[in-house]
Amino acid sequence: MPADVWGERKHKDVRFDPASAVERRDGLVIIRADTKDGEGRMLHYKVLNDLIRREMLAGTRHIVLEGVMGHRYIASTANRKELYIEIRGTPGNNLGAFLDGPTIEVFGNAQDMTGNTMNAGRIIVHGNAWDVTGLAARGGSILIKGNTGYRVGIHMKEYCGVRPCIVVGGTAKDYLGEYMAGGTVVVLNLGGARGSPVGLHLGAGIHGGKIFVRGKVEDHQLGPGATVRPIEEEDLPELLWCLEEFERAFHTSAPKDKNEYVKIAPASSRPFSGHYDPTSV
Amino acid sequence: MAQPIAPMRRMELEAPERFIPVVDAGLCKRCKKCVSECSYRALDFVDGNVKPIGGCVACGRCINVCPAHCIEIRQIPSQFPAHANFNERVRRAIMSQASTGGVLLTSCGTDIAYPVMFDEMLLDAAQVTNPAIDPLREVVETRTFVGGRRGRLQVRDDGRLHMDEGPGPTIAMDMPIMIGHISLGSVSYNAQKALFAAAKELNILAGSGEGGLHKDFLPYAPHVVSEIASGRFGVTGDYLKSTAAVEIKIGQGAKPGHGGHLPGEKVSALISQTRMIPLGTDALSPYPHHDIYSIEDLQQLLSVVKEAVEYKVPVGVKIAAVHNVGAIASGVVRAGADFITIDGFRGGTGSTPRIIRDHVGLPIEVAISVVDQRLTKEGLRNRVTVFAGGSIRSSADMIKAIALGADAVMVCTAAMVAMGCRVCQQCHRGVCSWGIATQREELVSRLDPEVASARVVRLLRSWNEELKEILGAMGIDSVESLVGNRDRLRYFGPNSKIAEIMGVKHVGEGWG
After folding, report:
1. A171 vs B270 pLDDT, higher one
2. Cβ pair B96:A151 closer than 8 A
């Protein structure tokens, strides 16, 4: 949707009761995002997010969003651990930004910046999730059944045993795990793509965390600071946990033979310490 | 038989020392306080006397702690043959880089003697045709409101007033000053505590910097502007919701186009906890925000942050002053920023490559005026609060910045100096002897947050009083009437083109 059209819309002026978009059935709360207002326009994202926030504060545990068509910022900063949001349709950019606990399951594709600066929770995508997925995530899981785009898992971090993970069922594009400071990224290549399932500049500037790729990774694909390392015994629980997380999300099985995976790890936790002259002349 | 040739020695071509602490042996009490207080290890106690052993940066700590007042730091005269072009500064940089092969790192604002337009402008005063006001006996308002004002007020056919969108969230500050974004990490716990406490006492805002908000500082949150920079350190929903305003940092005057880099030495347990990163790793902020490649993308981040704070606090954007700052500011306002902070190239930092600090960006004086003129021309100026920073050294700079078009100024280095900083430009080394730009426990404890805070409070209060004096002299009873009032400025410098760009008349030009 063109951003300016949405930005200019004065949703407050519309004589329309947003509550008419909410339906309660069999213990579920269903919000129809494609409900039309008096002028035939879909719910504005502000209205949709406000409805979700109200339901969350009221203690609703299961929200179904139907007819989602590019609504942005869904469930940003949602923080009830027990909340489960089921999305039917195509959510817009920044799905689950700053997410802190809930589970979001998308039956469709997600757009860019899914799980931006996420803190905790799970985002499950039964399709593809595009560019900059999991930017600066600090915790939680992002599980993608299909493929993902460019610059995924950038600057993920970990702290005090809290570690984010991204598992991609298919393939990923360039700059996967750029600036990565912690966490785990796994690319499964379940579709059996020919060649490498990841693009160029893999782990550029990585100084923490690990990337596991099922398939071939050539030296020229590695970014500065990234190295291929053998998978150690101590890596296995982490890898297996991610694979099981994927299996739980999609009720499928993920290949567990460690010999099929390549591990990419940082060459150093201080990649640029020799780059500078601190003499201060 | 010929003498064997001596094995070649590494060429020792280190640059000569710049400063030497000289101790008067006759007065010295041999208490060795200076030796233990020198965090740069420039002094030693040898054979019953304190001796300089090199590495002095003129931080002045030894002078301050000496009970006998017998230490003097001397600037060593240049040891280089005079050359105005290959000056000493140039030759020192070459020597250091030839030794280390590194990108020169430095701190604080640039020390190059670029022209300062603040010093080339004179203010107006009221005479005869308009009365001056005595600020000690009459009200001169310095309260400043921060936030978007995008609503339009209309008189309807029935004569009633109608505002279409409302003003949006705003914050009132008692003076047009904000303490800039100085992160916990670049400065110590005690230093940040002092700054936050000063902001609370003065009822103004202070920036958190990119490092999150320590849980002990939550009581100050109503006076803190949280920051989202490219590293997203410490950014959680709760953090954003707790503070008075949120600022998306795109750039910083001291290093436009450069990301942050907190060296591993400064990532102590405390910093690791607030930034939520492992101990001792480099805290790197990427150069760009990888979710912002355009104004439309910036609009998305602004929108998602507004969603996150539920539209309850202003959300703004900080940009470094660069050559096309007018157009960029216009885009930032159109993207929905409630306030915009412009940081000029002379601004300070806790660590930056010297090449960027000294050679990239625009002076803040020009940037403020260009942005104010552009936003006014496009009918956007009323929508935002404009903050300006980048070496606001005095109340005079503040007043001129406001007259050029800023709503309020951002102050960092001056507040540091109030707390004890001597601007020795060594912050990036993490061993600040004043306990400001360091994370070492034994150094941090040297800074008493209460004393430091009181000094910042007194400094900024006195600036505000000086602002009132000037406003009164101009016959203006509210600082808001000075904003963008370039007619009250006159340029008194060598370059009238600059005056033309700033929209400031030359000295001698009147208006009637």
Report:
1. A171
2. no
Separation of alpha carbons B180 and B413, rounded Å = 9
Q: What is the CATH number of the domain that holds A154?
A: 2.160.20.60
Is A11 a member of any domain? Answer: no
Residue B139 lies in a domain: no
Say yes or no for a CB contact (<8 Å) between B103 and A276: yes
Q: Is B415 found in the same domain as B483?
A: yes
Domain membership of residue A213 as a residue range: 128-266
**Inside any domain, residue A37:** no
The reported pLDDT for the residue numbered B263 is: 78
Q: Is A114 on the interface with B (CB under 8 A)?
A: no
The total of other beta-carbon atoms located within 10 Å of residue A1's CB is 12
Residues in chain B: 512
Strand partners, B52: B43
Domain check: are B466 and B376 in the same one? yes
Give the pTM: 0.93
B123 assigned to some structural domain: no
Query: What does the pLDDT look like over B59-114, one tens digit per residue?
Result: 999 999 999 999 999 999 999 999 999 999 999 999 999 988 999 999 999 999 99
Q: Are residue B196 and residue B77 in the same domain, yes or no? A: no
Question: B375 lies in which domain range?
Answer: 144-506
CATH of the domain at B35: 3.30.70.20
DSSP output for B322-351: -TTHHHHHHHHHHTT-SEEEEE-TT---SS
Number of domains in chain A: 1
> Smallest Cβ distance to A275: which of B93, B102, B264?
B102
How many domains would you assign to chain B? 2
Q: Which among B291, B296, B425 has the least Cβ separation from residue A280? A: B425
Q: What's the CATH code of the domain at B424?
A: 3.20.20.70
Predicted confidence (pLDDT) per residue in B126-173, tens digit: 999 889 999 999 999 999 999 987 777 788 888 888 777 667 899 999
Cα B339 to Cα B383: distance, rounded to the nearest angstrom:
8
Q: Which residues of chain B make contact with A3, given a CB cutoff of 8 A?
A: 296, 299-300
What would you report as the CA-atom Rg of chain B, rounded to the nearest whole angstrom?
25
**Closest listed residue to residue A85, CA positions, set A70, A69, A107:** A107
A76: nearest CB among B100, B264, B307 = B307
Q: What is the pLDDT confidence band of residue B440, given thresholds at 50, 70 and 90?
A: very high
Same domain, B398 and B322: yes
Which of chain A's residues have a Cβ under 8 Å away from the Cβ of B154? Answer: none
Q: Could you tell me which chain A residue has the CA closest to the CA of B277?
A: A159
- Tens digits of per-residue pLDDT, B21-54? 999 999 999 999 999 999 999 999 999 999 999 9
Residue A35 covered by a domain? no
* Residues in contact with A279: Cβ distance below 8 Å, sequence separation at least 6, in sequence order: B96, B99, B100, B104
Residues 6+ apart with CB under 8 A from A13: none
Residues B207 and B71 in one domain: no
Best to test chain B binding among A45, A72, A77, A152 (most B CBs inside 10 Å): A77
Question: Which pLDDT does position A159 carry in this prediction?
Answer: 87
